[in-house]
């Protein structure tokens, strides 16, 4: 009888322990943190440019570079000096507004260390009517407005020479000034102005020689409105410029590739219809 009672008590104790064990909650499996992909770091590339056509061309490159993680920031300047000093001082990574003769002269005069990394387009300079509506009607002593920086003034004088209006000395070259004029049959007088201001002087002079970017900004169609225009094989190719040592910056090289893309070529040809000519 004692053995049966002992067996019964043992069975009861086992059942109680099993019940307690069964009521204990099993801890939930530990959740692993969701792995998120770290976004690629964006590279900002700051580029100074003239409004037309340079900034417009650069805007075509913005989505091209965005696909490569490069945020192209285009900053518009209204002159030909600050964009270069800004690159020299590091405020801008590059600029796009000038040609090689201007760059070489700027470096020589200012002690800057700027270099070209790519040629992009040519802007044929043109002669525009002011108070006189054609070159044939220019009177004796007619007034001519030209840019006052060394390279663009020489370029303007070479264009006037090509039209038979003046003759420059044989050694004048790309640094020509009005002092280098050896023949001036119409006794033209010259008003030298900052390039950006030349279009504003049209009502005060007989004719003006204007850079294409400023002619476009003034609402001219160079192909249709210019009395005469440079040939498309002009040596004054507009270039992308950086400070020496930054030529191989990956973001800069990506911009070069974008500027030389079919998208940019098509944009230039369709937008400017010959007033701006691709150089690549």
Describe this structure in words.
The chain has helices at 2-23, 51-66, 82-89, 100-110, 150-162, 212-217, 222-225, 250-259, 262-272; strands at residues 43-50, 70-77, 94-99, 114-122, 126-129, 143-147, 167-168, 181-183, 189-193, 207-210, 228-229, 237-243, 277-278. The protein is of the alpha/beta class. The protein folds into 2 domains: 44-124 and 235-278, D-Maltodextrin-Binding Protein, domain 2 (3-Layer(aba) Sandwich), CATH 3.40.190; 126-229, Periplasmic binding protein-like II (D-Maltodextrin-Binding Protein, domain 2). The chain has a 6-stranded mixed sheet with strand order 2-1-3-12-4-13, sandwiched between helices. Strands 9-6-10-5-11 form a 5-stranded mixed sheet. Strand 1, helix 2 (51-66) and strand 2 form a beta-alpha-beta unit. Helix 2 (51-66) crosses helix 8 (250-259). The radius of gyration is 35 Å and the shape is elongated.
Summarize the structure.
With 280 residues, the protein is an alpha/beta fold. The chain folds into two domains: 44-124 and 235-278, Periplasmic binding protein-like II (D-Maltodextrin-Binding Protein, domain 2), CATH 3.40.190.10; 126-229, Periplasmic binding protein-like II (D-Maltodextrin-Binding Protein, domain 2).
Shape: elongated
Q: Main β-sheet: number of strands, strand sense, barrel status? A: 6 strands, mixed
CATH class of the largest domain: Alpha Beta
CATH architecture of the largest domain: 3-Layer(aba) Sandwich
Poorly predicted residue ranges: 1-27
- Give helix % range: 25-40%
